[in-house]
Amino acid sequence: MRLTRFAALAASAVFVLGAAACGGDSKSDGGSDVKKDVNFAAGTTMEKLNKDQKIRIGTKFDQPLFGLKGLDGKPAGFDVEIGKLIAGELGIPADKIEWVESPSKVREEYIEQGKVDIVVATYTISDTRKQRVDFAGPYYVAGQQILTRKDDNSITGPDSFKDGTKKVCSVTGSTPGKNIEQYLKDKTTQLVLFDTYSKCADAVKNKQVDALTTDNVILSGFVSDNPNDFKLVGEKFTKEPYGIGLKKGDTEFRNFINDTLEKIAKDGRYEKAWKDTVGKVDKNTPAAPAVDRY
């Protein structure tokens, strides 16, 4: 069986995770210091999580390079590493993180219902979402693009859908799913929505749809895992600032996460998290964007 480049990466990530769990030192899997003897103001979310020595982090389980469930049943990727870094600043080691699969359509709901403490899941910050949850960040700015079958040259970008003959897939409740509608002649027949991007990728491969659209880095993961089946076409046509979702009104916790993001951008941990995950495919390490302390 041919082991793809991404499969090898996933296996490596699983090995690292296992090694870290057995190490017993103050390092999390991503190499970040787990802070010891930290103190937080009484009554804050940070104090509660630190005392409980547990944090529930919502992420994706089906997105190569950002959040993909590994052979050990745990996700691996850039979002996962960012989550570990936040947990480490709270004094919580990686093996005390409860990873909760959080597809696009349930992220706000999971935060509101207290099923997760934070969501790090290729979660685009938007004014609509801010009505229900708060965001720290952004910690990365992606851009929407198009994935097609490698042998299909009929699609060159979003304008290729305007004649109404091509079907495109995205995920229910996602920003890319809404963005692509303006390029469709008839969204009721052209837009196919699933709950996960992996189902969209399968639909492209099986010729049920002609293309998949979401953020470029997510699509790059699918291409790296299936280089003989998929390709990216056209240029990025949106800007998607990824933020960390948390309960609305928890200003102290949002400030803490923003402080953490600024800290890891300066001390090299952000760059390391990228190089250990997405950087295996994309060698151009991005500069961490300025956080928005709205």
Question: What does this entry look like structurally?
Answer:
The protein is an alpha/beta fold and 294 residues long. It is built from 11 helices and 13 strands. The protein has helices at 5-23, 45-52, 78-89, 107-112, 127-130, 175-179, 187-190, 197-205, 216-225, 251-267, 269-275; strands spanning 55-59, 62-63, 67-69, 75-76, 97-101, 118-119, 133-142, 144-149, 168-171, 191-194, 211-215, 230-233, 240-247. Strands 10-9-11-8-12 form a 5-stranded mixed sheet. Strand 2 and strand 3 (67-69) form a beta hairpin. The model is unreliable at 1-32 (pLDDT under 50).
Spatial sequence of strands, sheet with the most strands: 10-9-11-8-12
**Low-confidence residue ranges:** 1-32
* Gross geometry: elongated
Question: What portion of the residues fall into strands of 2 or more residues?
Answer: 15-25%
Mean pLDDT: 90
- Specify the number of helices: 11
Structural class: alpha/beta
Major β-sheet profile:
5 strands, mixed
In short:
With 294 residues, the protein is an alpha/beta fold.
Descriptive tags:
3-stranded parallel β-sheet, 11 helices, alpha/beta, 34% helix, 13 strands, 294 residues, 5-stranded mixed β-sheet, elongated
Write the layout of secondary structure elements.
Blueprint: H1 5-23, H2 45-52, E1 55-59, E2 62-63, E3 67-69, E4 75-76, H3 78-89, E5 97-101, H4 107-112, E6 118-119, H5 127-130, E7 133-142, E8 144-149, E9 168-171, H6 175-179, H7 187-190, E10 191-194, H8 197-205, E11 211-215, H9 216-225, E12 230-233, E13 240-247, H10 251-267, H11 269-275
Parallel strand pairs: 1-5, 1-6, 9-10, 9-11
Antiparallel strand pairs: 2-3, 3-4, 7-13, 8-11, 8-12
